[in-house]
Amino acid sequence: MENTPGSPHPHEPHGEGLASRLNWLRAGVxxxxxxxxxxxxxVVGVAAATTSASAIFTxxxxxxxxxxxxxxxxxxxxxxxxxxxxxxxxxxxxxxxSEEPEFELAELADIYQSKGLxxxxxRKVAEELTAHDAFLAHAxxxxxxxxxxxxxxxxxxxxxxxxxxxxxxxxxxxxxxxxTTARIPVTFAAVLIALAITGSVSAxxxxxxxxxxxxxxxxxGALAMAITYGIGxxxxxxxx
Length: 240
Ligand SMILES: [Zn+2]
Prior knowledge:
single chain; mainly alpha; binds zinc ion
């Protein structure tokens, strides 16, 4: 992010920079959550049907890989679409600024007036910002965008794949490392503890009620494992 000349604390993160970092962190926690729950369901289901460590490991690693790729592709597509529409808005703004500068100045002044400034102050603010960098002023005030800080689809794709993978590794290790009879209980316990932690962290980041968030995510994870365990048992008994 560029520093405004004369800004008193040049290294202090701006409000928007901090918010976007929190968004990233929240996305990372959600990605890890996805990796934990989907891989846990998968390996518990397979372990309910067979004691073969290689079958369980193969299913787990395939689930991890497919999940990470699917997260990355999904994130790439959605962030690319968002960036395209942000770029189109910025291009439109640039055209409007060059074609109707007076109208745009009035529009900017209106925005500041609606935020509580007097018409005179709003006009003065709009004039000074327009003289400094009209495009930046409009992007921020009108569109809520920082043209230098549009989200990068590749970064979003890689970070969601990495967070999913980190989450998925936990149930994979929990099911592979213990002796055969302890596999499923150890995985249940490890997953529920991990989900309690991610639920608590994401509630903290989102400023929501912690106990409720933890309960929701823990119940969701327990249900996922219970259901796939049941399906795995049936498949194992049926000898499929
Ligand atoms: Zn404008």
